[in-house]
Every structure is written in C-alpha cells, then in structure tokens.
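The authors assume throughout that readers already know how a fold can be written as discrete tokens. A single example would do more here than another paragraph of explanation. An entry of this sort, consisting of the sequence and the corresponding backbone structure tokens, reads as follows:
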Amino acid sequence: MKTKIILVVQLAALLALAGAKLQAAEVNIAPDIESVKVMHGDKEVVIMRNQNQKNTVNPAFAKTSRKCPPFCIQPSTLAPGVETIAELEVLTYLRRMSEGDDSILVIDSRTPDWVAKGTIPGATNIPWTSLNPARGADPISIGEILEGQFNALNLEGLWNFRDAKTLVMFCNGMWCGQSPNNIKNLLTFGYPAHKIKWYRGGMQNWEILGLSTAKPVQE
C-alpha cells in the first residue's frame, strides 16, 4: 500500500513538472527556441522571455521622448560595412560565445550607472567614454583595450586586426548614441567594419520583448 502511495505521489510530481514545462513554453523566443543558456562571468544564465503575459515594460524604458540632441534617433545603417542586427542574431552570438567561441565579444557600451540597472547576460561593459579620446581616453588605455580585450596586435605603432574579435555592440536603444560612438571611434582606429555588429534596438527593445537581464559581473 505504501509503495502504491509513493508511486502515485511521484506520478503527480512528474505531471506537475510537465505542466510547469508547458506553461514555461507559452512565450518562446522563437517557434523553435524556448531559451538560450549563456555564461555571464562564471555563472550560467538562462535567457528567456517573461512568461507573465500581462507584464509591461520596465519603466526605465517606457519614456518615449528625450531631448535631441543628444538623444536623437539613430539611422538603421550606422556605417558602411557595419551590420545592423536584432535579437535573434545577438542570441546566436551569445550562444557561440558560451560554447567556447572566443572570437566574439558582446559589448554593452553604456556607462556603469545604466549597466547597473541590468544588462544582456554574457555582455562585457566597455563604456563609450573608454574609447573616446575627446572624453579623456588616453592612447595607452585604448591600446590596452584593443590588445587585451579585442585581440588586435600592435606592431611598432601599426595595428593589425587580422585576428581581432567580432564585436557585437549595443546601448540603450535606437535613440542612444553610446554604442554608435564606440563604433565610430573603432572605425577611426582602423578596426574592420565587417568585424563590428550593431544591435540598434539595444536594451529598450530587449526589455520590450521581455528578455532576461542580469546585473553586471563584478570584476
């Protein structure tokens, strides 16, 4: 009798898990993608969409109008050769990174105060000011980023980008100039345009779609 009761309890638990699984899959990323696992620092994070179908956008991204300039609408094409991408492409790059592809780096170009509110899991924060000489970024610091994080080579003052990483850059959205600033500076330094991808929708679109966010990794 006890064995029968245990089996019934186990079956009920399995059915409850199955029901939870079905409920969790009601709001997929795409028809064949329920979630994407990525590494955020040394922790695995599951990116999926908010399953509450009554959920509304994060208030930080609900504002429709900001003073322009500086918060002007960005073009769909930022520069020749720089590909503009959307969420599914960003997720593909994140998945490749988590599977060990170290030729890719997803970069949150925002200042730390914005990043502290939440970022795309798996992204590295390189604020737009750190690559901007006009904002005080010195050549040595910029060179350390190009070599240490982007895998460029400095050959007696000349930059070699043959093995440089593919950079996927984003900021707050289609009204934000932080990732465009990073991209334009990189192009000025000679970074190959085809190795730069721009997620124009940024955090505003990410939040509107209910995709998971994470706090920045503490160095």
In short: The helical segments are 2-24, 87-98, 112-115, 139-148, 178-189, 202-208. Residues 1-22 have pLDDT under 50 and may be disordered. The longest strand covers residues 36-40. The chain has two domains: 1-32, 35-208.
